[in-house]
Design goal:
Strand content: 5-15%
Radius of gyration: 30 Å
Number of helices: 29
Oligomer: single chain
Number of domains: 7
């Protein structure tokens, strides 16, 4: 191994000795996380050389390769040479070579890869793979062939059997030098198992490759023209045969770059293309190409735009294939979640308002509150769809109901985008929301002069910089004033803004420095926790009683990809269906990879928004928030249930208490209610009740007996200052109304508990 051109740290030297057999007994599982980027690049060749038979060396190999998949290694010229030597040496036993690893080193060598000295090694690799017809991914092979000077030998072998679009793409590379070929191959290898994360600027650099941006548009237009010709009967239709080998991947790469660049010519073309791909030109339930349709959907998931989401939804509406429809539904959920994180384009979402006349009646989809479909006869709002409309316009009723669902989904996506914008280091383009109904119900900060901000309800100050107001940037007096204003106006905000929780570093977190234990040690229902991860845009593997299913890390990327929060949790093997929560850590994107950061260095809004999500996970999924758990849970967890269900309030619950303090005087039962530090106390005719402001669980005086009430509906309609979709605030208020009139309770289960 050639590491003489860098000085290895003790940790790197120990890993090197394990990989090369100098040390054969690892006291503990090797840790490669402290390695520098250059140390990682220096050790990868030895990791590649490790065979299957050396146990401790295997552990070191996995540690190094796992880090290389998480971070950006860097290579010196000597490390590049060593890696290609390892690729050549591995041919005898592996019978192939992972050229993606070699090409990755070429584009991660800041001092310049030693192309001339690599030529001989490249010739050995290329000729071996050609003899054995182990072409694998053609683009890394073309990059290495450029090093070897073997373009002529390789080109003809790679184009055989491929479709014309794929061949045209392959023919681009011989016109480029080796660094450009390696860059293109890097973008293709990003899904390879051993590949490092894509270079941060790989898409921008791809667009600058000679002729490639033109090729992208030509490719998508050619794919569209072929599908149009099939539907016009100019080309024969065969199910799933519209495109030949290699063309699906070519179209996918073209779509990704066009979506990434948000090309103005793309929306119309993409909608026409995916609609044509989704349905046969006959009445058959087949498609011209499921593969290309799903590949484009995956490209949209990588780089979503509002127009691309609409195009996929249009494809889903026209397809006759039930399986394709279901798959597109699943993909659309992921796409809409990804769009919320692409804040710079998400604000282009249409507001969804619709007004349509059907005979003597009018259908209205309004988005001033939650998007809803209503029916009107003149100025009178009707409770249901008019019978005449249902009878004479059934298809329109169905279409309008679907449009209302789409409007609700768009509204959810837009709200998530607004929340994601809080953590962005660059202010999102909020001005795109001018005139949108959702903007009128939000508080905005306007920069009236450099560094001087003024908050206003609604986006009504033109021509100055604007940002979304957050209580962490306001004084306590201003926060109180806005909460009172929202309450007085009975303004239902689309997201929790005036009453938004703020999470600041605690002394304990300052002491631990790199992790937070604030939400550790809770017992949660795992299925509910996992559903919340997906709902809030966190990525996590599903845990369970299988090998590797014991420990999990839920991750959310924030601030436009600059920060990542990780919430650790583990499956409780002896408590089926439950998990335990653990630490929260933060990583910063640096040098193309994730590096753990001290909590004190995390931007305050990034920290606050991530911790707010974790608080939500615990508050909703904890067994302490389940009023029925006590009757069915394990005895060993009952102490935790009581501690959480009636213990100190989290930040989320403290904000709920503040909202209740402002709300109570307005309620008809105000004279029967009072607030303590943790409870809403309600005086009924039969007993006095204490409703915990965190869990919603109830104790009855005088002996603090537990009262189980499972929420069954929305209860009394009262104004709540933020939309929680049936969340804990509405649950507590509903229980208060029920218990204030405890003599009128008809549910025998509740009445029996109260009178016992």
């Amino acid at each position: 191994m050639n590491v003489s051109d860098i000085q290895l740290s003790p940790q790197a030297r120990h890993l090197h000795d394990l990989l090369t057999g100098v040390v054969t007994d690892a006291a503990q599982w090797p840790d490669a996380s402290p390695l520098s980027a250059y140390e990682l690049g220096a050790l990868l060749p030895s990791a590649y050389r490790v065979g299957k038979q050396r146990g401790d060396a295997i552990a070191a190999r996995f540690a190094v390769e796992d880090q290389a998949r998480e971070r950006q290694p860097l290579f010196t010229p000597a490390a590049c040479l060593d890696l290609f030597d390892a690729l050549v040496e591995g041919l005898a036993t592996r019978k192939w070579a992972d050229l993606c690893v070699g090409v990755g080193a070429l584009v991660r060598c800041p001092a310049g890869a030693p192309y001339d000295r690599l030529a001989g090694r490249a010739r050995t690799l290329v000729r071996f793979l050609l003899r054995r017809e182990r072409f694998g991914e053609p683009f890394p092979l073309l990059a290495v062939a450029g090093l070897a000077g073997l373009d002529a030998e390789v080109a003809g072998r790679l184009t055989a059997g491929r479709g014309p679009l794929a061949v045209t793409e392959l023919e681009l590379l011989p016109g480029w030098d080796v660094p450009r070929r390696a860059l293109f191959a890097e973008s293709v290898c990003e899904r390879s198992y051993n590949a490092s994360p894509p270079l941060p600027d790989v898409r921008e650099r791809l667009a600058a490759l000679p002729g490639y941006a033109v090729f992208v548009r030509d490719t998508l237009e050619a794919a569209d023209a072929r599908v149009v010709a099939i539907h016009a009967g100019e080309l024969p239709y065969k199910a799933d045969k519209a495109f030949a080998e290699g063309e699906k991947e070519t179209i996918g790469r073209a779509a990704r770059l066009a979506l990434f660049r948000d090309e103005p010519w793309l929306p119309d073309l993409l909608e026409r293309l995916v609609r044509g791909l989704a349905v046969a030109p006959t009445q058959a339930r087949t498609l011209p190409s499921q593969g290309v349709l799903f590949e484009i959907a995956r490209a949209v998931e990588d780089h979503p735009t509002p127009e691309a989401v609409s195009a996929l939804r249009a494809a889903r509406d026209v397809t006759r294939h039930a399986g394709v429809s279901k798959q597109l539904d699943r993909m659309l959920k992921r796409v809409e979640s990804a769009l919320a994180d692409r804040v710079e384009v998400a604000f282009r979402l249409p507001d969804g308002r619709v007004r349509q006349t059907l005979g003597e009646h009018t259908a209205v989809i309004s988005t001033e509150g939650e998007a809803e479909l209503s029916w009107w006869h003149g100025d009178r709002r009707l409770k249901t769809v008019p019978a005449a409309v249902r009878r004479e316009h059934p298809d329109e009723v169905k279409r309008l109901r679907e449009l209302a669902k789409q409007a609700r989904r768009r509204q959810t996506t837009l709200i998530r985008a607004l929340e994601a914008g809080y953590a962005h280091e660059v202010t999102p383009p909020y001005r795109q929301l001018e005139g949108h109904p959702i903007a009128d119900r939000l508080i905005w900060d306007f920069e009236m002069s450099p560094g001087v901000w003024r908050s206003e309800l609604g986006m009504n100050v033109p021509d100055v910089p604007v940002r979304l107001w957050h209580p962490a940037r306001a004084t306590p007096e201003e926060v109180r004033a806005w909460r009172e204003a929202v309450q007085d106006k009975e303004l239902r905000q689309p997201l929790k803004q005036a009453f938004r929780e703020v999470y600041l570093l605690t002394p304990a977190e300052e002491s631990t420095a790199t992790y937070s234990d604030r939400f550790a040690g809770h017992v949660v229902g795992y299925r509910r926790l996992y559903a919340l991860f997906k709902q809030r845009g966190w990525q996590a593997d599903y845990l369970g009683p299988w090998d590797g299913g014991g420990e999990g890390e839920a991750r959310r990327v924030l601030a436009g990809g600059r920060w990542r929060a990780t919430f650790f949790h583990e499956y409780l093997w002896h408590e089926d269906g439950y998990a335990a929560t653990d630490q929260v850590r933060f990583h910063r994107m640096a040098g193309g990879g994730w590096r753990e950061a001290p909590l004190a260095e995390v931007p305050p809004l990034v920290f606050s928004e991530a911790m707010r999500d974790v608080d939500l996970f615990v508050a909703v999924a904890s067994i302490g928030a389940d009023p029925e758990w006590l009757d069915q849970g394990e005895e060993r967890l009952r102490d935790y249930w009581r501690s959480y269900g009636f213990g100190d309030l989290s930040e989320n619950a403290r904000v709920r208490r503040d909202a209740l303090a402002r709300l109570l005087p307005r309620l008809a039962i105000a004279d029967r209610c009072g607030l303590t530090d943790r409870f809403l106390v309600v005086r009924g005719e039969l007993r006095t009740y204490k409703i915990h402001l965190g869990s919603g669980n109830i104790l009855m005086e005088p002996d603090d007996a537990y009262l189980c009430i499972v929420p069954r509906g929305s209860g009394d309609r009262v104004f709540l200052p933020f939309e929680e979709d049936g969340g804990m605030l509405s649950v507590i208020v509903s229980k208060a109304f029920l218990l204030a009139a405890d003599t009128e309770i008809t549910d025998p289960m509740i009445a029996r508990q109260i009178r016992s």
